[in-house]
Amino acid sequence: MSKHNINIQDGFLFQNLKEATRLELELVTGRTLVGRLKRFDRFAVVLEIAEGEEVLIYKHAISTIGQAR
């Protein structure tokens, strides 16, 4: 019998990527970034913070992620 690994992080990010919702990322430095998720992998996320302006953020630098108000 195989064990299914449930990855909550990937599920959350994929859902927000698919719905193109605006996210609020708080970094460990205290800085907050708001934008739409464009891509992600095991180590980083790409956030579009303005039209055509994308930022690469390493996951170890993120404190919290939530939907923007």
Q: Would you kindly provide a brief summary of this structure?
A:
Strands 4-3-2-1-5 form a five-stranded antiparallel beta sheet. It contains one helix and five strands, in the order H-E-E-E-E-E.
Assembly type of the shown chains? single chain
Distance between the termini: 43 Å
- What global shape is seen? globular
Number of strands: 5
Q: Which series of helices and strands comes N to C? A: HEEEEE
Q: What percent strand?
A: over 45%
Q: What is the number of helices?
A: 1
- Return the average pLDDT rounded to an integer: 93
Provide the gyration radius in Å: 13 Å
Low-confidence stretches: none
What is the fold's blueprint, element by element?
Layout: H1 8-19, E1 22-27, E2 32-40, E3 44-50, E4 53-58, E5 62-67
Antiparallel strand pairs: 1-2, 1-5, 2-3, 3-4
